[in-house]
Known about the structure:
The chain is an alpha/beta fold. The protein has helices at 12-21, 34-37, 58-73, 88-97, 137-149, 204-214, 220-230, 265-288, 303-325, and strands at residues 2-6, 29-33, 42-44, 47-50, 77-79, 105-106, 118-122, 156-160, 171-179, 182-191, 234-242, 245-252, 294-296. The strands form four sheets. Strands 2-1-4-5 form a four-stranded parallel sheet, with helices on both faces. Strand 9 and strand 10 (182-191) form a beta hairpin. Helix 6 (204-214) runs parallel beside helix 8. It is globular, with a radius of gyration of 21 Å. The termini are far apart.
Amino acid sequence: MITFLTTAKHRYTIDGLRKVWAASLAHHLRVLPYERLFCMRSVPGGVYIFTDLDRLSEKDGERAREWYQILRDAGACVLNDPSCFVDRLELLQRLYAAGKNQFNVYTFDQIDKVRYPVFLRYNEGHDGNQSDLINDRATLDGALKRLKRQADGRTPLIIEFLDYSETDGRFYKYSHFRVGDHLVYGGLACGSSWCVKASEFIEQELLEREIIDGENHQFDQAIMDAFKMTGIEYGRIDYAFVDGKLQIFEINTNPDMGFTRPKDLARWRIRSRNYQLVNEALWELCMSSSRESRIETPGRFQPGYVLRRWLTLPRLCAKRIRKFLYPNG
């Protein structure tokens, strides 16, 4: 059995994996929210994959690190060590300092160092850009002030814009999955805007290019090195190319593979073939794990955490109501 640990709000990614792309493995995959894990007295053995590491609070991050060690000490196979996790800010700054990325990222107190144009997004989560391109300090100050009002504990980042468009004016974004020791090509997304979330174009030429790119392993080592830099053994990396050089945007520990079938059946077949390799890697993990047995939890994890969750419930409800009534702060 493989257990994916997620935040309760974002378990839908694994639910989608179980229902669509890995339906044949559904009985061997399960989702366990951290909120429930931290209250349990014992858990079954098997494989555990820690996801959503960038969405955990500081306190829950500490609990996740302790749980990782408990599971490892009990003989479970565990992926994504929270102690080694590197967030978006540190990853991009490391890549820039090493000369691998051509763009840098800054926090609010480094605003004097930025090179325009820039855009804003959060260090946590995967909501994409939170602003259009910004070309001057006055506009940046105003955008940061608005973003900080609705940050809800998240850290705004200032990211230098990288023009990764090709000669046809389109932007091409690629992805790779890592499952244990395996890399799997995730596909190609093409759009007319610099912020590519999903493929805007579905053309035969693009489908052929996606097949060819999936068979090219020239950058596998660089991609694996980036995964290792963040301590991520399960996740998806998004990247592009500028002048033939790999430019890494982010690594997602809880990637969404999508729910619905694309309108173009040819693309569906290509993605199905790619994601079948993800299934095979997951099955290999499942088969390599020891037989299941109960792993007992130290008592200090249950009562205090459960009590705090109940005590904070009214405050959380009030906070959501206030956000609904006053969305702009």
